[in-house]
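Q: Structure tokens for this one, please.
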Amino acid sequence: MKLPFRLIATLVLISLTGTFAYQAYWLTGLYGTMTHEMEKNIHEAMRMSDYREMMLRIKKMQRENGQHGSVEVQAGYEAGSENPVVSRDIKDDEGNRLRKDTLAPEESSAMLRSDNGLALILHDQGSTQALAGFIQRGIHSGIDLFSSPDITVYDSLLTLQLQEYGIRLPHHLEYFRTHTTPDSSQVFVDTLGRVQSAGYLPSKKAVRYDYTLNMSLSETYRLTMEPVDGLILKQMGGILATSLVILLILGFTFGYLVRTILRQKTLEEMKSDFTNNITHELKTPIAVAYAANDALLHFGLAEDRQQREKYLGICQEQLQRLGGLVEQILSMSMERRKSFRLHPERICLKTLFPTLIEQHRLKAGKPVEVALDIEPEELVLTADRIHLSNILSNLMDNAIKYSPAKAEIGIRCRKTESGQVEIAVSDHGTGIPADKLPHVFDKFYRVPTGNVHNTKGYGLGLFYVKTMTEKHNGNVSVKSEPGKGSTFTIRI
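A: Here is the predicted structure, written as tokens:
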């Protein structure tokens, strides 16, 4: 079954893109909400600071009441008039009226019919904050008749209030009054006070926040400070870090998934190549042995002793080759079974190698010279005899196959300081490129040789060597240089 890699990769990419997009949308929405909330807090801080500043002035006026008498502020309608009137009575300690002031009708009307005035109370009674602002401006209109706002006190209160909301930024504060000519053709602005943080100079990106004090909307506090983006990002630091970690985990997971699928796809292709190769390898000895046997049976070659021995030798050689192939395949199958067991025994290497060397000389088809060096001469190794023979046979077979017209092989056996036995098989063949060395022990892997050496194989030999060596609690390594040969070393 072929893996639908393109479909899977497309679905993974769509899923990852969708996850990233949703995360970005959610974070953007959160950023917008926090920005709106912080700006709302700034306006609320300006309102609360104004209220507290006004309460401080009222308390101050109460303390001074014994010296200046009492003040009453009244609002209502005069008899027979449709215009609202606001008046104030100033009395002495004994209750005698000293002076009564009445505001002009247009000022009174502005107090009671401003844009955020009675209409708001009558039509939007649920807006508590707006109603509080309306009442606060109404109080201002009375209090400011006797005591002007103190911008220094207001600035101190505002700084504390902003800090309560986590806003610690240098700022610039102005208090100004606007008025127009009778025909409203010109607008005048009078700056009544200015305060700013030490050393602060507003930049071009600075943001202005206005808060209107009185009912006539003529007096305003203007707060200027840098954008709150940095504060919001700092507050979102934990969320952003968590989101980044999640995205990295997702990215790594999807990447690992794609990598696994690619490896599975590669493994599938390698298995397909292996099937084709092993089919060819199995068919060749069968076909040769069948042809030799057929010649002996049907063409009278059995009568000729020399021909008979020749063809029987061919049959035996091909059957040995076929047996070797089947043995490796069965070994790979058995290695995965839980019931697989080694049968270790003490093996004298001096008696093991001669038989192996002779077998490889007979089937090599080319001159083979083997230099065997065992030290000490009676070196003994504890291992499974069959699998150790197969391990060494694979290494020797590779050394012969990848050697030129004449194979020169060196076999060196030593005992290491750690007590292991080290067996190194060297050749002077084609060698292996450095970038291919990490893969030579992978299952089904074959080093590409181009058109220089068309050597048959199916990528199981070295995998078998590595697997069985590790089953013996040992390890295998390789050193190679293209054009100079290779050395495979096992330690058991």
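A few notes: Residues 103-126 have pLDDT under 50 and may be disordered. The domain at 341-491 is CATH 3.30.565.10 (Heat Shock Protein 90).
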